[in-house]
Amino acid sequence: MPADTDRHDGCADALIALLMVIADIVALAAAALWAALRGLGRGTEDAGGGKAVPGTAIPAAAPPVPPMDWTPVVMFGAVCLTLTVLTIVFWRGGLRITAWAQGAFALLAALAVCVSAAGEYDRAHPEPSAPTSPYIGTYGQCRSGGDSHECPGG
After folding, report:
1. Strand, coil or helix: 3
2. What's the total number of domains in the chain?
3. Is the entire prediction scored with pTM above 0.85?
4. Where are the alpha helices (DSSP H) in the chain?
5. Which positions, given as ranges, span the membrane (predicted)?
């Protein structure tokens, strides 16, 4: 039996590829939308730091940085794994055009995994702020380092 009998018609392969591309776009867009809406909700939860303590004018210390949220990484990873499995299934089924299209979207989903992991890492590990100087100006201080009798205003 020749190897060409395992291959399907090119027109059917292209039509299946088109349908799968539409399904891939919907799946990746839904995952990205869900991750974005989840991130918006997280922004309001994290905004509670720095509120004034009742009875004082001094704001409370900022809350500790939240831990890394693995949900978007796992979600895009699941989409990537699904697309990779479909790529293998279509390749073995002889649908080469569909397999290449699925492979391209699997790479796009892998990129989404990397971007979401990097974003979550940056959010969970912010750059430390530069220390501020306790220097408040020259009022009441001597520039020469002498006692207060040498300085004006002292």
Report:
1. helix
2. 1
3. no
4. 10-46, 71-92, 96-124
5. 12-37, 73-91, 98-119
